[in-house]
């Protein structure tokens, strides 16, 4: 399921493929399904309860978009969402509706001057080479505004991990989907949202529509357990279970909402850790500050090399995040 | 009951514990201070406190925020040293050697690891020492996610100047409380005095409160920066020259008619005022004015030196004049703005 979901290309603003896949998966369920004007997929499971619950996970991923096509048929681009442009040179990408292959062009080491070798490539000079020989030829296949995704396929590595793109936040989508498909008696609304990576825009609209009393955001967060990180202020660790947020740039999780999750995890002997990093934003803020205010908690699956084409995530973490989300739903029924 | 002078109100308020997200102590204090002076007093689920004064048609929301800047604990190590992250716009440099206080009264000092240069000073280099002799995470009195605020008393300086932590925005809270106490009889409009939460994290409390109360007009009472100290950035606001009538900041452009109303009232009542153009920073009115279909809003600021430091300084006369101006404002008819069809 994770392989299927993460292999789909769904850059912020163009989540169609992810949405249609989810719709296909849900077609035999009795759930009430709507797609709102922004493209959020809202799925209501079970009966209406007095204190409506909202689970949210965003469908979109970071990527690039084509901004210009030059005379030689090379494609200029800009990032969509938070991408470290220093990791781009040499990467394989695919773009447009036909998922045309290309590569992010880079001057070979033979041709670089010594001072060029000593610093990262200037993002302004990067381009996509898709094998076109002229502007005219390129224009037949590529359009300004086409979305560009990393061209990688998800594979299983190690004993429990997966390597691929877009785990942020197809891992969250997978958890919501499982809760919608499995045999349970839970009543809740699942929001598969759009445009999180460009400013949690979909969740804002979804929360106004659903008007929940309680919300849980299921996210993916940066794992900081790599050798160069200072342990003292490290974020999260792979394989240590779901990361419960204290605060991020968008939300100060109320001690009650956070405490509920911790108590649930302890009661059911589920592993958990705190997301000790307080920067970066999630949909939590957009939901918590909608309407008259919504008690919102955030739980995330740790993910190494997040926002890169080769992220690493643990299925054990995903399953335990699923268990914690299920426990949260059960508590609020 | 003996009437408390505003200085004493301010002393209690500024010395209370209330970093963004944990405003409870301040809220309880304010509820007690308002007592029966408001016609209605209630809270919402995010912790905002609403004090209503009855009046004619139309609703005015006047907001001051209860929260203050602070820190959040992100790690406790085996030796019992605590690591911090900022809560709101607080500089790591201002924290070195400062005392911080937790909700339970635990107090510590902030210090730094070895530095080769002051330029290296940043959050990862700072730690907080609250006197622990090493502890297991489970029985540590301070947990990850706990908040702390600065620990400084209010001090009266020369010339009626007052120095304290959290003048931003307990000074605004003190103004609102004093106005509520002075008002008697019905007002031309219903007025909601809002004591909001989480302003320092992005005007969050005022956003949901304005949605709930659905006001016709908005006003924030907050502190603002000044340009009257050595080599300070250019800003035409000084301490002691009266309340500042906001023109703009990063969060809003004040409605010209609301601004005119404030200025006209100041002139009529011989209240000194200054005009404030703040290039950085925001206030609750920023959230209120974009609520629902839009709420014409303005802001009155108390000039304050060293905002977001342990020693914020205001002038007592400015505070008194701000009370007077806000009192006049809520006793006035606000102008009809929009809503009428063009002939």
Structural description of this entry:
The complex is a heterodimer of chains A (333) and B (343). With 333 residues, chain A is α+β, with helices and mostly antiparallel strands. Chain A has 2 domains: 2-61 and 165-331, Zn peptidases (Aminopeptidase); 63-150, Elongation Factor Tu (Ef-tu), domain 3. Helices cover 27% and strands 26% of the residues of chain A. In chain A, helix 7 (255-267) links the parallel strand 14 and strand 15 (273-275). In chain A, helix 5 packs across helix 9 and helix 7 crosses helix 9 (315-332). The longest helix of chain A has 18 residues, at 315-332. The mean pLDDT of chain A is 93. Chain B has 343 residues and is α+β, with helices and mostly antiparallel strands. Chain B folds into 2 domains: 3-68 and 165-330, Aminopeptidase; 71-150, Beta Barrel (Elongation Factor Tu (Ef-tu), domain 3), CATH 2.40.30. Classes of the chains: A alpha+beta (333), B alpha+beta (343). The interface between A and B is medium-sized, with 21 and 26 residues.
Give a nutshell description of this structure.
The complex is a heterodimer of chains A (333) and B (343). Chain A has helices spanning 2-7, 16-26, 114-117, 135-141, 167-181, 201-210, 255-267, 283-288, 315-332, and strands spanning 32-35, 41-45, 53-58, 63-69, 75-80, 92-95, 100-104, 128-129, 147-150, 155-157, 161-164, 188-193, 214-222, 243-245, 273-275, 295-304, 311-314.
